[in-house]
Amino acid sequence: MTHLPCAMDRRLLSYRAAVLVLALGVALAGCHTVLGLEPSLAECAGIGDSDGDGVCNDADVCPDGDDRQDRDADGVSDGCDRCPLDKADDSDSDGFCDSNDTCPTLPNPGQADQDNDAVGDACDSDPCDRAVCAVSCAQLLTSGRGTQTDLYALDPDGAGPVEAFLAFCDMNTEGGGWTLIMVASDDGIDTWTMVQAARFTTDTTPIGDVNMRHRDFKSPAYHTLGFTDLLFVHAPSGVTAEYEMVGDSSGALGAFINATPFPNCNHALAGNGFPLTGGTLTLGGNLCDTDLYFNLGDHETSEAVCLDLDGAANHATVGPVWSAQNNNGCPFDDPGFIAALGPSNQCVGCPAGIESQEQRTLGFAFALGLNTGAAGTAENFLQVYIR
Length: 387
Prior knowledge:
Blueprint lengths: L5 H25 L1 H4 L101 H7 L6 E5 L10 E6 L7 E8 L31 E2 L2 H4 L5 E6 L4 E4 L9 H6 L19 E2 L13 E2 L8 H5 L12 E2 L13 H4 L25 H5 L12 E6 L1
Antiparallel strand pairs: 1-2, 2-3, 3-4, 3-10, 5-6, 5-10, 6-7, 8-9
């Protein structure tokens, strides 16, 4: 029998062992994610492990964060979970994890909780039971009690008969402090019609849901909160129109409109309405001017024709309205038909049933071609705020 020298025998064994280790290493590199073994930098060469959690990017469910833990067992690793200790995460998408949200079922990014009972105003059945609620969004802003655009509980009459209610406050546009009181929406529902004109004046019944601010809506604030300034915000265009010093703060908008003559047929009003004081609205299209008016009659020819609601073509309207031209030039041509928030008078020559139909022009929007959303889907709407 021939024997190899001891030195050669040892070298051969070392070579065989090295080959075995190399083969095992290659095999493990191919299945490290299955075995749960962390790869070496060499194994992630060309692929990378950007978060340094030991899992190559090609097999990493969370390449931007450590995915070796999922403490709330929601199927999203901690490294990619905005709420790693809250399985429900942020179910209302308001920026707060449910476990830390004062109202986890409704968006309330400002976390308003005026009575400090750990239940946000948006979810509190009695938001003023431990504190006096604010009268208006403007008061919240100036007092520092509420500075973010959000839902807040308001109680305009304090100890009066009107219960506190949830209101939407815009704390950013044109200085902030705006209370949403109304939405006219092309949502396929005939809400703002001439038959229901009292909704603009004396009918105090609330309409809609403050959480559905793209659909027809009327807040209790419409009839209870005194105002000075008005703000109109159109969607989808984003065009805004601010009118300061319209009211005198002593009364609500409903009472203001009710005290305005109807039909308003003063020809001298043209260009002398409430002037635009802020916002992004500009003159153009079929708009005659950017002033704000109320309860306009149809100035087709004479004042006598304007006053005759049974005339052949008197498209008078109730509520806020702008001056625009249709088939008879400026000013105040067919206001209810092309430049109001919905109501149009049932004139003799008008289409049958027009008094029961909402004209979906949305104030200045139709005259400027701003209603670009799909008809009847609540993509086009005009929000009305007071301050």
